[in-house]
Amino acid sequence: MTDAVPHPDEALRIAAFTMEIGLESDIPTYSGGLGILAGDTARAAADLGLPFGVVTLVHRVGYFRQSLDEEGLQSESPDLWSPEDHLRPLEPRVHVEVEGRHVSLRGWEYQVTSANGRSVPVYLLDTDVEENTGDDRRITDELYGGDKRRRLQQELILGRGGVKLLRALGHDRIETFHMNEGHSAFLVMELLSEEGADATDDPAALERAVEAVRRRCVFTTHTPVPEGHDRFSLPLIREVVGAPGADLLEAVGCAEADEVNLTHVALRFSRFTNGVAFRHARLSAEMFPGHRIHAITNGVHAATWTGDSFQRLFDRHLPGWRQDPFLLRHAVAIPLDEIRKAHGEAKATLLKEVERRTGRTLAQDRLTLVFARRATPYKRADLPVSRPEQLLEMARRTGGLQILYAGKAHPNDEAGKEMIRLVVRAGQQLGHELPLVYLEDYDMELARLLVSGADVWLNKPRKPLEASGTSGMKAALNGVPCLSILDGWWIEGHVEGITGWAIDQGWEIPSDDEAELLSLVQKLERSILPLYHRDPDGWARVMRFAVALNGSHFHTRRMMQEYVERAYRV
C-alpha cells in the first residue's frame, strides 16, 4: 500500500493530463513510451519540488498480459490489478454527461515521492461505482481497448471528468493544464464551461472565452504517426458528448469535414505547443501548418532507470548525481575497469533472468544485442533478422553474438503480431550458433534489466516516424551504446563511434529496408563486433562516453527545467 500524503491544495499550479502512466510494474496503467514518460515526468517534478499533479484513468483491466507460443503467436489476457492495494481512495464524486446519462466517477491518489521527500499526486479516475450502470462502470477499465465509441467515452471522462475532480479536491488555482496528446483535449470544453461559454450568437464573447482557456493550456504532441491522432465523426460526438458540446466544437472552429480531430482541438486551445525532439517539432509544424511547434526533447528519470551496479558506481565517483544528473558528464573520469565491472554485473543479472524465464543459457562473453520496443510495423523488429543466413555468416566471421527481443503488439495489430512471429521463426533458423530469445510480457521491471544488461541497444524505426524514443536514453545511463537509425532523439545524441553508431548517415533520407539492413550488418561486422571482442578498453571508453555525453543530458530533470522556463508559469 502506497503511503499517501495529502498534497497542499494551494500548491497545485500545473496539472498534466495523460491517457496512461507508468508508476510501477504492479500498476499496469501504461502500454509503452507515452506512459513511461508520464511517470518519469512526475518523478522529475517531485525531484524539483514543482507544484505539479497528474490526471489519468485507473484502467482496472490494465493493458494486457502477453503470452507467446513456440511459433511466436501472441495471445492476450487481462492484466487485472486492485487499486485498493496501491492507491488511496478519494472522497469526492463528480459526474460527466455521457450519451445523455449522468456517469459518476471517483478518484484514487498515488503519491510519487522523491528521495528528497517531496511528492506530487497522481489522480486516477474510476467509473466503477455503484450508481453507474454495468456498461458505464467499465468505461475506465481497459487501456486502449474497445471501439471508437469506448475510446471517445474514455477521453471525455479524462478531460471533463479530470477537471471536475480537480475542482472537487479544491485545486482552484491551477495556472497550466498540460495536455499530452489529444486524448485529453476535452478538458478545454470543461474550461470553456467554467468561462460560461456556449455556442451562442455572440462571437466576441465566445472568442474571449477561447482566449481565456488558451492562456491556461499547453500541449505536447508525441507522434508523427497519423494513427496517434484521434479523430471522431461529428455524429458520434453528438451522440456521446451531446449536441451542445458538438455545437460548441463547431462554433470554435474545431470540426472539419464532419469530424473532430482532437489534436486540432488541443492546438487551437494552447498557448504553447511542443514536439518531443528537434526533428519531431519540425515535422509537426509541417503536419499542422499555421501553428508554432517548439522542441523540448524527451528525457528519462536517471535514478529510476540506472541499474543497481551503475548506481553504486556513480555513488562512489559522482555523489549527488540522483538530484543533479548533469553531474554524469564527469563520468569521463571513472576508471575503465570499474565501468567494465559494473556492466558485467548488470549483464550477469540480465542473463540470469533470461535463463529463469526461458531456460535458455546465454554466454556472458558474447555481445548481447537488445531490441525491446512496442511491436508495430514502423519499428521494424524483423529488419535485422530478415536474412538470417547473412546475419549468421557475419557472426561466424566476427565473433560471438546473441540477440534479445521483447515487446507487445496491440491485440488488434495483426501486422505487429506477424512481426513477432517472423522474429521467433528467424531465431529458430539461427539456432545455437547465434542465439535469439524473444522475452514475453515486456514491462517496467524487465525493461530496467534490459537497458542495464545489454551490450548494444538496437533501434531501427522507419524514418521519420520515431518522434523521440526514450529506451536508448535509458540504456545510455547504464553505459550501453546505441546502434540506431538516425531519427528522433538519436539525431541529437549520436556521435559516431563515441556514443554509439548510426545505421545510416542521412536522417533526411527516407528509409530503405535494403540499404539500412546492409548498413546495420556492416556496422556490426566492421566496427562493433571487432571493437567489442578485440579492444576491451576501447569498448569501455564508448560506454563511458554514452554516460558522460548522453546520460548527462537526456534526462527528465533537464526536460522539466525546459518546460518550466518555456511552457509553464511557476
Provide structural commentary.
By secondary structure, this protein is α/β, with parallel strands linked by helices. The chain has two domains: 9-229 and 261-298, Rossmann fold (3-Layer(aba) Sandwich), CATH 3.40.50.2000; 302-554, Glycogen Phosphorylase B (Rossmann fold). It has 19 helices and 20 strands. Strands 1, 2, 5, 6, 7, 8, 9, 10, 13 and 14 form a ten-stranded mixed beta sheet that branches. It has a six-stranded parallel beta sheet with strand order 17-16-15-18-19-20, with helices on both faces. A two-stranded antiparallel sheet has the order 3-4. Helix 1 links the parallel strand 1 (14-17) and strand 2. The longest helix is centred in the middle third of the chain and has 23 residues, at 336-358. The protein is globular and about 75 Å long.
Number of domains: 2
In angstroms, what separates the terminal alpha carbons? 32 Å
Number of helices: 19
Estimated share of beta-strand residues: 15-25%
The shape, in one word, is globular
Oligomer: single chain
Biggest sheet record: 10 strands, mixed
CATH class of the largest domain, anyone?
Alpha Beta
**Radius of gyration of CA atoms, rounded to a whole number:** 24 Å
- Percentage of helical residues? 25-40%
Query: What value does the average pLDDT take?
Result: 94
Known CATH architecture of the largest domain: 3-Layer(aba) Sandwich
Low-confidence stretches: 1-10
